[in-house]
Amino acid sequence: MKSKPLILKLGGSVITIKDKPYTPNPQVIRRLAEEISRAKPETLLVIHGGGSFGHPLAHEYNIAKGYREKRQLIGFAKTHQSMVNLNRLVIEALIEQGIAAVSIPTSSLTITNNGRIELLMEKTLVGLLDMGFVPVLYGDAVLDSSLGFTILSGDQITVHLALRFEAEKMIFGVDVDGLYTEDPKLFPSARLLREIDLKGLRDVMKGFSGSRSVDVTGGMWGKVRELIPAIEKGIRVVITNALKPENVYKALIGDEEIGTIIKGS
Description:
alpha/beta
């Protein structure tokens, strides 16, 4: 690979209206595409979450816990197709901004085992990155060698690829200003953590809870838990509010005073 990639994860709560099933946030999607285009990162991978497109169906059909009854097959298909629909909106916005974005269906590349990535075929991604494309993956319903199938979160994909490709940095665009001492949506007294190391991160994890919306991938707790292996390997993490204009642009160009910086070990 020509250079270490930046990996940008766009949360489902940013690109969709998470409490309104199957409702995108087109203005935000277009703005984020423009910010990415203006930042001009040399090597970029984008992963996005499911928000109101993926989680309601996955929850309705209990996809995350694996195959239990035949009716779940149509639920798996519906969940995947809903994510394809959301991904199309992201891809179209990126292409309109002159970004050579290529959709990569996660379920076509990946098999998990008890919910953890067992196989992710990376050769296609490496080839696209070396050519100058921007691969765009997403959280998806995937086959699982133990469960039959499950839900693979965009956060797990992000960290897996960051480790495999020795990423320069991971940027998480979320719907809050960064990591807090408590959930700021529930506790107004929560304090924003501007910079934190691995030890401090483990301490504050005790205060995190899952998302209040329907989220089959664990909310902020799931996100932070996924980050630890990458932080242990020294990969820098920036968590920023992608609903605020310019934050993602600043994170991409290296201006990180716009959220929480988690320092690698």
